Amino acid sequence: MERQIINKKKRVFSLEPNKNPSAVFTRKYTSHLVPALKKLNMNKNSSKQTVKHEVDMALALSAQEFPWSRFLLQKLSSSSNPTTTTSSSSDGIRILERPDKEGGNEEGGIEERLRELKKLLPGGEEMNVEEMLSEIGNYIKCLELQTIALKSIVQDST
Amino acid sequence: MNGAIGGDLLLNCTDMSVLERQRAHLKYFNPSFDSPLAGFFADSSMINGGEMDGFLATAGLNLPMIYGETTVEVDPRMSIPLETTLGTGNFKKRKFDTVTKDCNEKKKMMNREEVTEGEEEEKSKITELNNGSPKSIKKMKIKAKKEENNCSNDSSKVTKELEKTDYIHVRARRGQATDSHSIAERVRREKISERMKFLQDLVPGCDKITGKAGMLDEIINYVQSLQRQIEFLSMKLAVVNPRPDFDMDDIFAKEVVSTPMTVVPSPEMVHSGYSHEMVNSGYSNEMVNSGYVHFNPMQQVETSSDPLSCFNNGQAPSMWDSHVQNLYGSLGV
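Predict the joint structure of the above. Result:
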């Protein structure tokens, strides 16, 4: 890929922006999120839930090649108050507080953990284990990119 | 269709037909097979010099190992063009799944997966063969039905065979149970462990942990922490709305910083070509193996070559970062 140094700020652009999937995802994500946020801003209705909704929606729309994004989209469009990640936060605290519960039985513990993982992934409960494991990888990657995008947006606004 | 390949490679009749079948299968269902995507995301092996470029790429993981083949000599880079990356592989798996389901009504789940796994096996085999090192390998086969395993070089006939019954025949490995159930179980277990290895590469701090349970715990915690992080950021966003003159270009601009640091997701970002050279020269693979590595990206994003941040001037971390540090610090890092 070629790059071009544009100005004194040393901005670097790619001449082939569609090649790298992480760049594609991030671009799509921000292009979904930022206008949505602007609209929210204008409506003076930026409660935490609506922002979260937009954030999740942008995620689902930018990752449409993965099945979990379809599930996420369904969840978002069906409910006005999506709790896709807020609910899992409470689950998370439980996990952290019981470290030794499955310590004894390795086999049972694995099943338990797989079930927890399935709950974390949107649509994970409907997948079988192998598919779920692969999709978790995609999901993790997209979440990481999403955090980067959100961070930069927040940074840019402060 | 692949007579040339058959001629070049001195495999026995049976192997060739399976290979041919699979290749024909692939070509039939996916005409664009020969032009694979470069992969969805580069994984952490990017840090090791930018060799790999595939989503959850099989860094150090040899898919054909599952099938009892020794492919240690296969250069990982070689296998990439043949799409052994998991993300795209799964994407194609889904495509194949739907197509093969249409073609064959009485198809069992196991066998469908076998088909896709067989494709990957075949792809890697082609890598091997292209490397000029054919081996007489005991392939793993599942004898589901009595299917004619002739040395037919007729592609249309081969395709028709595939359409009718999409079973991939696997032979049991030496010294192991030959029961079809246990073979299937073994294949399934190996697939799961293969995926777990991918995830191990993906989740920071997982390479120190052995055992499925511990790794799964790590993965769960990591996903939860990412989700919480996103929630926090969106909360922050609700408070600080984007200015009307928010410039989208700023997001994609990249500041070339002189002190690159390692960020968990950034190798992938940077490999987008935004600062290609800088990444390869500057990055050190210092994955901090603390339990909650998201800690590091938040600290380092300020000074690292974050392609999305336009304020990388080595600023001191802003207030909210310290808030978040406290937040995550309370989780017992």
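The radius of gyration of chain A is 19 Å.
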